[in-house]
Known about the structure:
The chain has 82 residues and is mainly alpha-helical. The protein has helices at residues 2-33, 35-55, 57-70. It has one domain (24-82). The longest helix has 32 residues, at 2-33.
Amino acid sequence: MAGSTQLVRWGGRRLSKRMTRAVPWVGMAIALAGFAAAVRRKGMLGGTFDTGLNAVPFLGAIKSAAETLSGRDLIPDRAAAH
């Protein structure tokens, strides 16, 4: 029984290490997937800057937390054209 417990722990550590390396890439892929929508809402400069901030691993998380706590975007949407 002790051998299987050690095997499970070893597998968990290995998976954890692999996921730690993958998280920044996954976050960047999610940010880039929303690039077109951000450009439509915020304009080319604002959308590019917003996506760039979101793509940086820890900075994007801090930006999202600040936006959630404040209840508004740090980079506002452009005015709607009528």
